[in-house]
């Protein structure tokens, strides 16, 4: 029988949540024969939560799907003394003589990125009518089949600097709480890759155009703008041409939409994942746009635009290498 020589560096990176979301607490690890047993409490007002597991050995990360794990991970009911067992020798037949670091994350209604300090809210699955009155906004039914987390604000200059170490923004004097801009779609992909590496995950990305509009419409409501259908009330929800003073403003200062998302209309345009193309005419599920193209889509309007460009359905596109003083982004995180 193989002898294990494992120094358990029980590093449980506890994710911050709001009062009603589940939290991983009281984590304990110990070796039991050829297995490692982890116990923890899953505390919160919700009935269950998604528990993710990451193991890191000598700088290489392994997800639960890469390992022989049994027990309470994936969808787990809240409660005490949850257990996960790892059969080490099935994954490492020669045994281990290395530090092992674990990460347990519990997904509730609100997730906070440990690197960015950014909050994400859980957007439920659903079906809605996407599109509007523009010539390239063909109305069609879209089903979002899986819940996802959406960042409550646009990525800020301070958050960009935490990951990239510099601030590219034209409005740099605005401060760390203002949205980052002057970033291309390609720049954003670099940011996302670095953030995923730093957090030891692969869950951050840009939202698809369908996910973005569904979230902007407060979960598929037929709202003309993000949070309201009244142009006379748009100034309560958005920094746009009529009230911005020709500049960006700190994120989260206006009213949020029905899902708690700020500045989905106005402040800065937001890159999304899709290549630009025509919408389908029929019903689709988890639509992701064309498989290739010349231009990437951005949504939401900005500080320099009129109300029409701040509509939930308004869409524009540009070269993925282009940058603008009115163009930024927000992140999606998968469950």
Structural account:
This protein has 335 residues and is mainly β. The protein folds into two domains: 101 residues, Immunoglobulin-like (Sandwich); 215 residues, paralog of FGE (formylglycine-generating enzyme) (Alpha-Beta Complex), CATH 3.90.1580. The protein has four helices and 21 strands. The strands form five sheets. Strands 1, 4, 5, 7 and 9 form a five-stranded mixed β-sheet that branches. Strands 10-11-14-21-15 form a five-stranded antiparallel β-sheet. The longest helix is centred in the middle third of the chain and has 15 residues.
Helix and strand arrangement:
Blueprint: E1 7-9, E2 23-32, E3 35-43, E4 48-57, E5 60-63, E6 69-71, E7 74-77, E8 79-87, H1 88-91, E9 99-107, E10 110-112, E11 119-123, E12 126-130, E13 140-144, E14 148-151, H2 157-164, H3 185-199, E15 204-205, H4 209-216, E16 269-275, E17 284-285, E18 296-299, E19 315-318, E20 327-328, E21 332-333
Parallel strand pairs: 1-9, 13-17, 16-20
Antiparallel strand pairs: 2-3, 3-8, 4-5, 4-7, 4-9, 6-8, 10-11, 11-14, 12-13, 14-21, 15-21, 16-18, 18-19
Q: What is the CA-atom radius of gyration, in angstroms?
A: 22 Å
Number of strands: 21
Straight-line N-to-C gap: 38 Å
Judging from the principal axes of the Cα atoms, what is the shape?
Answer: elongated
